[in-house]
Amino acid sequence: MSEAISLEAVEEIARQYGYWAVFWGISLENAGVPLPGETLTLVGGFLAGEGELDYWIVLLCATGGAILGDNVGYWIGRWGGFPLMVRIGRLLRISEEQLYGLRHQFTNNAAKAVFLGRFVALLRIFAGPLAGISEMPYGKFFLCNASGAAVWASVMVSLSFFVGRLVPLEKLVSGVATFSVGALLLLVLAIAVPRLLELRNPLKMEEK
Q1: For the segment 74-83, what is each residue's pLDDT rounded down to a tens digit?
Q2: How would you classify residue 34: left for phi > 0, otherwise alpha for psi between -120 and 50, otherwise beta?
Q3: Domain that holds residue 48
Q4: Which residue ranges run through the membrane (predicted)?
């Protein structure tokens, strides 16, 4: 969740705008806008558990918003994302060859990344654009995106709907955020460790 927006403010937004807050919050976040969409979804499920919103409508809004947002991100990436990444890469001193390598890595795991990306910090925002940049077939993307959105929304809304009655909302949101960051760290290690081993093996071969 963005540190600039407190949980109290997110609750107020959810109470004031209800289902639209859930739908547009996660939709814009998945499209690449840094908004607390996941937190709005959790708050929506919590309010459903309190009887202020309907569980099934919150679930529908979360699922639909997630699908829409990633579709927008996909077409942004498909129509011009990579040239933009190249320009940003130059500012960050990342070569175009390295960016091509990153795109290739995503392509090899695109389906899994799109399906599971919402449970991983940052990847929830960038999975759509990266899928477009890597030119993942739209039909395949839509299937992975829609099924992933349904699973993610079901978990988040159900978790806050049921567990929110037993655990304070602040602890619930913090726990989900910690899991998301932990998943990101595991993903980084899963990518970095094999590459480090690949780099070490040629050096050992040269020493021999």
Answers
A1: 988 888 777 7
A2: beta
A3: 7-80+111-207
A4: 55-77, 142-164, 176-197
